[in-house]
Amino acid sequence: MKKEILFILLCILCLKVHSQNAPQPSKLITIPLKVINGDSSWLREVMLSSAINNPDNYTLPANYKTYRVGAFILNTAQEYYERLHNGKMTAEAFAKLPKGYNIDTSILYNGVLKGNRINVFTAIDSVNKYVIVDANNNYSFLDDKVYVFPLKNHHIDTPKIYVSITKYDGKQKIELSVPIKIVAFEENISQTGFDKSLDVSLIAGSMRLGQIEVNGKTYLIGLNNIHFGLTSSHNTDYHVTIRQSPLNENDINDYFYFPFENIDVGGNIYRIQQVTDEAITLAFIKKRENAGGGLYTIAPEFDMPDVMTGRPYKLDLHSGKYTIIDFWGSWCEPCIEELPLLVSTHDKYLNKVNFVSIAVDYSKNIEKLKGLITQNNLVWPQVWVDRHERDNNPVSDYKVVGYPTTVLLDGNGTIIYRGIGAYALENIIKILQNKLGG
Question: I want to staple 132 with a disulfide (CB 3.0 to 4.6 A). Which of 141, 354, 366, 371 is the partner?
Fold first, then answer.
């Protein structure tokens, strides 16, 4: 990690810093972007494959009994556009795609873009997990290397693999050879309904990076997408990550912004006005009104009724105790899987740590949610946020983008840790053991 951070710092020395101490509303700031490649966790885009239900179009190895063929879709909009043309999606369904896809058909290829996916074969036996990446994109796994991952070791590092992809820039198809890395045991994300032992992820370590100064501090603005380049100013299949410079290897905030969201840089709220391959233009909106939910900031307060009792619950930032805030949902399988560990942690630190769970769920699932709370003996405060609501609630205030998200506050209400997935709660337990013993 230290080498990765040093690499990024060396790369950003040539970036021009834009200062924003007292911006005026709607003032535009254009920040140059530079392409950066590396393996740092915040430079990466983790891709989870979609299982292929009918792998007849692929040439498969014959010596595996338990296997799955998956595809990593690079441009989601292009994939849906192809489904529309080949009759696998109706025009009505295409028109109702979520806002985040923001599909502009003028920049999509009018046909099948074969290199818009990276195909992966995964298999498993009692000893190993096997992963084959279709690096030359010929829909055959017989001429590619087999990577072997022992089931007893989930932390094997893999070399970079160069794979062939095709992107469309609105005018022509462009063939590229791009680097990826295999994550054979991705514990934080999974596909419901499939054998999780066959899950595999790929890391695309590439982003465009800019730099801005706000109120005397320097921030890095990273635009990360799986196109290995933005491809056009209309592309919205990317996300934005903000880090303070110099980078702190202990900064483990997982939050990123979608292009249609307002972004928070050093307490200033901006709207993304335009993005090109060379620059990002931001429009200043206002100063931030709360703490922002970031690491080492005061946690945003909330006052909401307990979904089980109806009694009001208000987050106490000055209790003198550590506080664990758990964001979960009845629809989230990894969230439910970690409940026993959450319960045992609660029981162990009952008198030393405050607990509150925030369920992010649809109103139609309230009874299912209450059932899970009762069945798993979640006896601490349980509040509910409607999953339809994106603004003005703890989910937006704490910038939650993945589940489960677990946040740890110290006795003065400062966020000292936040993370996504099973490892986050495990890391919090280590912090509590170090601070409180046990």
Answer: 141
